[in-house]
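Data card: per-record layout.
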Amino acid sequence: MGVFHVKVEVYSLEHPETRQEVEMVVDTGAFRTVLPRAAVEALGVESDRKQTFHMVNGEPIERDLGWVGVSLMGKDAHAHVILGERADHAVLGALTLEELELEVDPSRGALRPMQEFLLLAIAGDVTA
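The structure for this 128-residue chain is written out next.
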C-alpha cells in the first residue's frame, strides 16, 4: 500500500472557529495522532497530561497530550492527540481514524468510510 498523506482540519474545542489545515501521514500502525507543534500553538491547545512513549529503537520519550477537534471527509470527532514537538511529524493514527469512522482502502492507498458490522442475537439462538 505504501505511505500516503491526507489534509486534515483540526480545531480548538474551546474556540471551534480557530482551525488549521494540517497535512498528515496516515499510519494505522500508530495508535495516536500526532499534531505538529505549530498547529498546537496556533490553536492554543493545552496539555491535560504527559505520557511516555517508546521510539522504534526502544528509547523512551515523553510527550504532552491534549484534546482537539478533527474534521476529515465530512466527518468530525474529538481526539486525544499527542502534542508534538518541533521535530515530530504529523501523523493520523488508528484511534482518530476509528473515531472518524474511516478506514484505509489498501488497494487504492486512500481512506474510505468504515464498513461497520453489528452482531445481533437471533431469536431462538441460546448459544451466547
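Known properties of this structure: The domain at 5-113 is CATH 2.40.70.10 (Cathepsin D, subunit A; domain 1). The chain has two helices and nine strands.

See the next section for split statistics.
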